[in-house]
Structures are given as structure tokens and as C-alpha cells.
């Protein structure tokens, strides 16, 4: 679990990343024909949505559960509204879909538009943590137990979709969150398509590009978005085998991670960040993050300089539920003062 979900004194944080890339980095040729940008959808009356309800068997906090799917405050695929509703624009195996979900008297009420409306509504319980097993978790530390009592509605999301979590995770390798969020926002707005149905006022939501569109993003557009050749090449390699990677959503988390890590440029950090969302992986603790080991070490042992090995040692009592334990630690707000300097924003022209 990335440490960006911890309360922090500043918005710009440093992300972890995979330390090695296997294979050669390839980018779109400068003389390649650019893919046409999606046209703005003409104004038309909103189609009647498809509707579904689901009553969770235990308390559910919608914001905590779906929050990890949001990639920054201006993510064009994710919005929240003052009435507590969460909106998602997503690409399902059956086509684009827009989902609106809200809790009303303990029941999740969902509306969906687009070709993928039935697909996403059929999986609404899974998305909201129906397959999560918080009862399997036993707090071993007072801080963790206290946070668990304060956050009874935390469930681990499971989208059943790999690329929509994998691509932004690749963008977050070795850069600040602000840089990664900006890249995701620009690329989705430029090459994605307008979300079907209505969207919140002034939100301009977009669905992530399909694999064919990602493959034809010109090299200069990656550069304009601040994405270096290594990350762009990793995304291009991933979308070329998109169907095989999407199969990982139905695999046990460890097998899913192994499948993802067959792609050069995808390592343990990125695979963990992905399956936490796509597979609801309760044990996929993130290693390689700059701040998470120190946060876990400080929360559980009062140690400010813990590394990955020490973090895994401290989380060992939570084997099988280490990701949930890390989420609760981050939500506790019990974090050490920052001592490491912030990573400077990357000038990809120097790479």
C-alpha cells in the first residue's frame, strides 16, 4: 500500500518505484502517425441509467473503500459530490461505463450508463468489498486496534480490472505524486473518451484510453505529460499484452503479481499497487516505497529509519492481512516527521 494514503503536512509526496527495468526501452517513433484525439461528445439528453442496490452485511465507508482508486484531486475518471456519491468512469470488457454509487440508509444504490453498465453493476458488491474478509484480521498492536475500531467501514476494493490500476501505478514510479497525477490527468483527458451518461456538474469525466489508443500515443505527447522513456516503454509493453494481464484479475494475488512482473519494467512495487485494487489483495504490502517502511516502523516500534526488511518483520504477525494492517497504520495518522528531502521534480529532458 502506498504511503500516500497517510495524512501528511504537504500535498506533494514522493512515490516509490521499481528499481530495475528488464529489456530495452522502446518509445513511439517521432514520425509515427498520431492517434486521433476523441471528439467532444455532442450534447444530448442523458440516457436512462441502469440501477442496482446492494445492502452490505456490515458497516461500509464508501470514501475509504473506493478512495484508493482516485489518482489525485483532479482525476478525470473519479469524482465525489457533496451528497456523498462517488462517480467512476471506467473501461470494462464490454465497453465504457460511468458508475454513480451512494449509501442511503445503509444500502448502496448505484446507477450506471454506457456499454459496460451491466458488467460494472453485476460486480458492485465485489467493488465495495463483499469478498473482503475483515473478520480474518486480528489487531496485534494497540494503535492498529484503535484505528480499526475508529474505521469499521474500511473494506478492500476489488475492481476486477487490471490496466486501469496498472497504468497509473507505472506513471507513479520514481516521481512525485503531483507529477504522476498530472501525467495521468493529461493523457486520459487527451486520449480517453468522454464518460457515457451524465457526470457531475463541470466534472468533464473521461474513460481511460483502450490498449490500441495507448499504443499510438506519440513520443512527444508522453514528453509533454512529463513521462520519461522508461515509464512510457513499460506502459507500451503492458498494453501490447493487455488481454493476458487482465486475466490476472481472476487469479490469486501472488499468481496475479507474477503474471504482471513478466512484463519488463513492472516489479514488486508496481504489482502490489495494482493487485491491491484489481484483486482486493489483503496481503499485498507495498515494498520499495520511500516513506512506508518508516511510517510502519514508527507506528509499531517507534523506529524512524526502518527499511523494507524491517517493515516486513514488523508486519509478520499480520501475515495474510499485511496490506490491511498497512492501511490502518496509514489511517491512524501516527507518522514521523519528515526528515528525508523531497524528491525534486523530474526534468525528463535530462534523462
UniProtKB/TrEMBL annotation:
One GO biological process term is: base-excision repair, AP site formation
What are the alphabetically sorted keywords of the record?
Answer: DNA damage, DNA repair
Presence of the UniProt keyword DNA damage in the record: yes
Source taxon at top rank: Bacteria
An example molecular function term from Gene Ontology annotations: alkylated DNA binding
- Which residue positions does the secretion signal occupy? none
Provide the Gene Ontology terms for cellular component: cytoplasm; protein-DNA complex
**Ranges of Low complexity composition bias in the record:** 29-48, 60-69
SUPFAM superfamilies under this entry?
Answer: DNA-glycosylase (SSF48150)
Region: Disordered, residue numbers: 1-91
Name of protein? 3-methyladenine DNA glycosylase
Amino acid at each position: 500500500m502506498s504511503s500516500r494514503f497517510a495524512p501528511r503536512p504537504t500535498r506533494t509526496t514522493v512515490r516509490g518505484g521499481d528499481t530495475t527495468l528488464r529489456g530495452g526501452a522502446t518509445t513511439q517513433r517521432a514520425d509515427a502517425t498520431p492517434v486521433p484525439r476523441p471528439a467532444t461528445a455532442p450534447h444530448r439528453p442523458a440516457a436512462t441509467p441502469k440501477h442496482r442496490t446492494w445492502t452490505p452485511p456490515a458497516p461500509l465507508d464508501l470514501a475509504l473503500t473506493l478512495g484508493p482508486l482516485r489518482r489525485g484531486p483532479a482525476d478525470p475518471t473519479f469524482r465525489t459530490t457533496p451528497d456523498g456519491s462517488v462517480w467512476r468512469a471506467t473501461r470494462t470488457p464490454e465497453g465504457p461505463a460511468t458508475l454513480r454509487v451512494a449509501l442511503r440508509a445503509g444500502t448502496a444504490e448505484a446507477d450506471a450508463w454506457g456499454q459496460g453498465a451491466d458488467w460494472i453493476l453485476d460486480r458492485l458488491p465485489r467493488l465495495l468489498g463483499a469478498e473482503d474478509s475483515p473478520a480474518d484480521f486480528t489487531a496485534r498492536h494497540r494503535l492498529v486496534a484503535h484505528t480499526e475500531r475508529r474505521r469499521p467501514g474500511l473494506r478492500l476494493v476489488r475492481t476486477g480490472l487490471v490496466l486501469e490500476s496498472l497504468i497509473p501505478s507505472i506513471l507513479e514510479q520514481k516521481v512525485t505524486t503531483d507529477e504522476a497525477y498530472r501525467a495521468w490527468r493529461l493523457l486520459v483527458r487527451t486520449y480517453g473518451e468522454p464518460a457515457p451518461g451524465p457526470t457531475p456538474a463541470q466534472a468533464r469525466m473521461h474513460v481511460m484510453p483502450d490498449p490500441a489508443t495507448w499504443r499510438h500515443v506519440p513520443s512527444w505527447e508522453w514528453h509533454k505529460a512529463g513521462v520519461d522513456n522508461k515509464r512510457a516503454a513499460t506502459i507500451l509493453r503492458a498494453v501490447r499484452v493487455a488481454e493476458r494481464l487482465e486475466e490476472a484479475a481472476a487469479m490469486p494475488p501472488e499468481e496475479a503479481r507474477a503474471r504482471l512482473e513478466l512484463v519488463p519494467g513492472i516489479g514488486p512495487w508496481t504489482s502490489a499497487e495494482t493487485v491491491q485494487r484489481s484483486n482486493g489483495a489483503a496481503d499485498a504490502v507495498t515494498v520499495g516505497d520511500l516513506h512506508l517502511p518508516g511510517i510502519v516502523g514508527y507506528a509499531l516500534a517507534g523506529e524512524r529509519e526502518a527499511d523494507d526488511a524491517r517493515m516486513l518483520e514488523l508486519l509478520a504477525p499480520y501475515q495474510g492481512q499485511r496490506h490491511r494492517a498497512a492501511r490502518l497504520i496509514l489511517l491512524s495518522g501516527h507518522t514521523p516527521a519528515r526528515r528525508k528531502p523531497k524528491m525534486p521534480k523530474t526534468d525528463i529532458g535530462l534523462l
